[in-house]
Amino acid sequence: MNKMSAGLLGLSLLMCIGGCGIRNQNTVSNEQKSLNIAYQYGLAYTPAIVAKEKGLIEEAYKEATGKEVSVTWIQMNSGADINTGIASGDLNVGFMGAAPAITGVVKDVGYKVFTNLSGQEHSLMTNEDDVRSLKDLVGSSHQIALVNIGSIQHIILAKALSESGLDPHALDSNIVAMKHPDGMAALETGNIACHLTSSPYTYMERSSGSFYELDEVSKAWSADDSFIVGVAATSLYEEDPELYKALCDGIRTAMEYMDTHMGEVAEMTCELDGNTKEDELKYLESGSYTAETNSLFELARFMSDAGFIDTMPDSYEDLVFDNVLGD
């Protein structure tokens, strides 16, 4: 090989290597960001559903960066499933009850609260004529349906017991885990004695006129208190602040949209919930939708005092990221 041929070969190799490097950089830079979000069932998750249906997180991210993000929404049955997903890295974000979220933060699942989502009134209904207070249930064999042990409904029941001067764990053995619609059906057929639930089942059971409501539960945790919150992986908050901010902005925009377009939101969600638009609107308007938490740290203190968590957070800031307002 002469000197000219060798030189041309070397130049060709150099150009090939350089070209490969450019293609690799373009591949990385053009790779679309992704966000995996889990949510659950019910009207309490409506701001998340609005953000999903209207692409508000994607919109916020593009406005801020000029780039696209792919958001995948996954409907799950429990906060425990969401905890598993975030801990494994399969999920970046989840919406769940305030109590399971507190438990997850304390157990170092790898997230904190990034927003409040909603507050909803809870109710405890019974079909038993001899039950007129929580005290009547203590020591009985009457079964109480609620979504799960350790759920926000379980903690609200325990708080109501405590505020009535009773052992917060006095009814733990009476609990039967059921999804909200299954619990309502079991109450209607008499297969269980009591059902602790939230919107819209609270209003449906009240309107039937067939059940008696034990008001200790609704007094222990009101619609103004945090019920559903959003949690985000610490890795998202620390490693991708632009995407984290777009997430927060998208959910906040969904709440603002609900404030001014509740009729349109009811039309959007009524088929998902199996309600008429009129009933859906009434149920939605009974809830509270704000990014600010309310009584979250109070709930953590009760959970610690009652033995639901092993470690009491030192402060509210231990539970939330620094953009979150509330208490």
CATH class categorisation of the largest domain: Alpha Beta
How many strand units? Answer: 10
Per CATH, the superfamily of the largest domain is: Periplasmic binding protein-like II
Q: What's the CATH architecture of the largest domain?
A: 3-Layer(aba) Sandwich
Q: Looking at CATH, which topology of the largest domain would you report?
A: D-Maltodextrin-Binding Protein, domain 2
The number of distinct helices, counting runs of at least 4 residues, comes to: 15
Strand content: 15-25%
Instruction: Output the structural class.
Output: alpha/beta
Radius of gyration: 25 Å
Lateral strand order in the biggest sheet:
2-1-3-10-4
The arrangement of helices and strands along the chain is HEHHEHEHEEHEHEHEHEHEHHHHH
The N- and C-terminal alpha carbons lie at a distance of 78 Å
Helix percentage range: 40-55%
Roughly what is the average pLDDT, rounded to an integer? 90
Main beta sheet = 5 strands, mixed
Low-confidence stretches at least 5 residues in length (pLDDT < 50)? 1-29
Label the overall shape: globular
Number of domains: 2
> What oligomeric state best describes the polypeptide chains here?
single chain
Describe it.
The longest helix is centred in the first third of the chain and has 28 residues, at 3-30. The chain is globular and about 65 Å long. It contains 15 helices and ten strands. Mean pLDDT is 90; it is low at 1-29. By secondary structure, it is an alpha/beta fold. It has a five-stranded mixed beta sheet, with helices on both faces. Strands 7-6-8-5-9 form a five-stranded mixed beta sheet, with helices on both faces. β6 (144-146), α7 and β7 (175-177) form a beta-alpha-beta unit. The chain has two domains: 32-120 and 225-318, 3-Layer(aba) Sandwich (D-Maltodextrin-Binding Protein, domain 2), CATH 3.40.190; 122-220, D-Maltodextrin-Binding Protein, domain 2 (3-Layer(aba) Sandwich).
